[in-house]
Amino acid sequence: MSDKNQQQPLTRKERKDLKVLALFTSVYCKAHHQAGRSPIENLPPELSHLSGYRCCTECTEFLLYAIERRLKCPLDEKPSCKHCTIHCYRPGHREKVREIMRFSGKALIRKGRLDLLWHYFF
């Protein structure tokens, strides 16, 4: 992968956004898909710390797709995806990420993760 985004190290904000995406996908998967959850594999080396989250095959494929799209984002100052003007997800995936974020955000806030309020509203 000789993409320019792969050569540049991820910023702190990008790593945090991808960690939140992995966390939210894992929470969603745990609530909706009971069987076959395993650690996330095939992550880029700089995101190997996300392998601690567990997802089913379907959610893992979605998460890897979302990570790939985020890493290939052409914008210099990368906005959060919901505020982006380009929307690079293929049809159906944008709705899926909205569903995951909406469900998991509410679930984590109910469990006391108030630090995620900022990400949920903005």
From TrEMBL:
It comes from the Bacteria. InterPro entries: Uncharacterised_YgbA (IPR020483). This is Nitrous oxide-stimulated promoter. It comes from Malonomonas rubra DSM 5091.
